[in-house]
Write a structure and sequence with these properties.
Strands 1, 2, 3, 4 and 5 form a five-stranded antiparallel sheet that branches. The chain is globular, with a radius of gyration of 11 Å. It contains three helices and five strands. By secondary structure, it is α+β, with helices and mostly antiparallel strands. The longest helix is centred in the middle third of the chain and has 7 residues. The termini are far apart. The chain is 25% helix and 37% strand. The protein has one domain.
């Protein structure tokens, strides 16, 4: 199963996801911020969820950007 990483950028601050999460495919990764919240990112995502100018960058296990979500 592929591993996806959900990195978060708020302004100039970049918070890397060093662990990632195994998901069946990219479509699941695109809609899985709720799933990621259940993993090690729960504290980070819940604390920054309401911040403006937040960007989530989803990368595959090779580090390639596969999706960017700007809020």
């Amino acid at each position: 199963m592929p591993r996806y990483h959900f990195h978060v950028q708020i302004g100039d601050c970049f918070i890397p996801d060093r662990h990632g999460i195994d998901l069946p495919n990219l479509m699941t990764a695109r809609g899985s911020e709720a799933q990621v919240a259940q993993a090690s990112w729960s504290c980070v995502l819940s604390s920054i969820e309401a911040l403006p100018n937040r960007m989530t960058v989803i990368t595959d296990q090779a580090g390639r950007i596969v999706f960017v979500l700007c809020v």
